[in-house]
Recover the amino acids of this structure.
């Protein structure tokens, strides 16, 4: 039984969650009695998925037990901390690693030790006994090491028993698995025994070198889950972020492209002289579990030869226009064409919406000939008295957040 | 068969044994980092975006002067750091950061060899 004391002190059941953008949106967390396999190819680490799931749950009041045979509890906790996931009182570790190295590990209230990890029976009985102590979530890190250590059929039969215990205790389990080239028959058996499989792999598509996750199966969501492969980055600190390697920010001169990038990201850099961008702006955005790299173009015509290179490989566009300058709107559309991003998901940002002479959203839509499906969002400066024509202006976060969330929704 | 990124990485690792080469990266011509051997405090994303725009701008500049051949390399220098960007096929750029007080000729030779290899790997 997962116990959770709400603000008013009443107890209610809550399910564990992944704490990972996109996965929670699509799978609605991990329901009770369910087992999830996170299956990675050898070139890609999956341990950060474990850390992040643990972090999310121990912070929402779920008691979590980690069966650990990959590393020592101390280095596990240090590694978690490096991702900014500090442990708390809800985290318990069953240490099946220290016994292998011969280094004596000290038992604490939160760390229990399996003295002889070579002994199948001891491992089994200690794990199964531990499962009866009201944990909401069990994390096995790692299942593949268990299979390597004993053999695959033992690992599978052990998993069946864990599954029974998980079901009778109303908890849930996450298994971390790296496929080091096991027999297909064994892997298939493993996959058919879990309720959901999330695949984590490397991708090398043209110039995009990265990592993605995808839901291969999930038996608590009707039909096939609509989650195709999602690019991600494991960032220290911060953890797993759904990742968009290139989003273009374009629009006419002085519309506010640099202001948008600087307001949306913490570490933006610009190549600008006398207040105008001459080569590009670049900034990384961290937003609600997502990470995106923004590339901003210059607006002046004389830099047009650079536009094609800046637009290449972009997967979405923020088109920024100055609400007070409808005469520039044809140039805005022309820039979409020159960057060769016409037709990509686009969010139009009508900046300077509070200035005198600013057009209303409807008028801007009409003049830009925007399809009704395209999102248009108004942004304004945080403090008009601080606007310096030679520096990017800080824009109000409401508009920025609305714009980011509108485009990110379209991109996944 | 090693993945492309493993192959690219091994090219960079070999380059790093040449005296004076402090860091290196392969980036895409449109500004995305692909593989890098860089100090941890360098943000490869920003670096890649800036370097690619330098190469893109230089290409346009040199063409506007009537250059008949394609751009070979771009060099940026300060007293303590020299950065060289070498075109490696159509899609990729090899960038290396070197100590300016070393055998520059040898480094250019090695980097142009490496760029040919990288171009080959990208075509696979």
């Amino acid at each position: 039984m997962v116990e959770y004391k709400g603000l008013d002190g009443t107890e209610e059941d809550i399910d564990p969650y992944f704490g990972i953008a996109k996965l929670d949106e699509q799978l609605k967390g991990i329901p009770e009695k369910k087992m999830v396999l996170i299956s990675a190819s050898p070139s890609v680490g999956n341990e950060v998925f474990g850390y992040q799931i643990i972090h999310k749950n121990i912070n929402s009041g779920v008691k979590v037990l980690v069966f650990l045979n990959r590393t020592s509890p101390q280095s596990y906790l240090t590694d978690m901390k490096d991702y900014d996931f500090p442990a708390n009182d809800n985290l318990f570790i069953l240490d099946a690693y220290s016994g292998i190295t011969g280094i004596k590990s000290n038992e604490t209230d939160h760390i229990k030790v399996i003295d002889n990890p070579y002994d199948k029976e001891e491992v089994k009985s200690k794990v199964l006994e531990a499962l009866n102590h009201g944990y909401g979530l069990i994390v096995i890190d790692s299942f593949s090491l268990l299979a390597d250590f004993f053999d695959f059929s033992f690992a599978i039969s052990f998993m069946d028993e864990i599954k029974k215990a998980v079901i009778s205790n109303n908890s849930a389990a996450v298994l971390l698995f790296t496929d080091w080239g096991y027999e297909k028959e064994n892997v298939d058996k493993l996959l058919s025994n879990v309720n959901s499989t999330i695949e984590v792999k490397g991708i090398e598509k043209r110039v995009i070198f990265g990592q993605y996750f995808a839901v291969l199966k999930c038996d608590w969501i009707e039909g096939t889950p609509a989650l195709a492969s999602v690019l991600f980055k494991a960032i220290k600190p911060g953890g797993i972020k759904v990742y968009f390697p290139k989003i273009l920010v374009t629009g006419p001169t002085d519309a506010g492209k640099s202001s948008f990038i600087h307001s949306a990201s913490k570490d933006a850099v610009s190549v600008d002289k006398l207040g105008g961008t001459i080569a590009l702006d670049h900034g990384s955005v961290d937003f609600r579990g997502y990470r995106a790299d923004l590339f901003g173009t210059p607006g002046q015509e004389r830099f047009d030869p650079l536009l094609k290179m800046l637009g290449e490989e972009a997967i979405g566009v923020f088109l920024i226009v100055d609400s007070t300058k409808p005469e520039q709107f044809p140039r805005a559309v022309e820039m979409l064409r020159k960057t060769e991003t016409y037709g990509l998901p686009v969010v139009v940002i009508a900046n300077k919406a509070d200035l005198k002479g600013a057009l209303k959203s409807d008028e801007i839509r009409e003049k830009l000939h925007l399809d009704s499906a395209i999102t248009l969002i108004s942004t304004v400066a945080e403090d008009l008295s601080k606007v310096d024509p030679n520096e990017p202006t800080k824009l109000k976060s409401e508009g920025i957040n609305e714009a980011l969330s509108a485009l990110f929704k379209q991109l996944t | 068969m090693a993945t492309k990124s493993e192959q690219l990485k091994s090219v960079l690792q070999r380059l790093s044994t040449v005296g004076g080469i402090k860091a290196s990266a392969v980036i895409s011509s449109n500004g995305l980092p692909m593989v890098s051997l860089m100090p941890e405090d360098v943000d490869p994303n920003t670096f890649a975006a800036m370097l690619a725009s330098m190469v893109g701008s230089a290409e346009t500049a040199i063409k506007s002067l009537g250059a008949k051949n394609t751009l070979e390399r771009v060099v940026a220098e300060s007293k303590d750091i020299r950065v060289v960007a070498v075109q490696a096929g159509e899609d990729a750029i090899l960038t290396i950061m070197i100590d300016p007080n070393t055998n520059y000729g040898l480094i250019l030779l090695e980097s142009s060899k490496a760029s040919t290899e990288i171009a080959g790997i990208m075509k696979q």
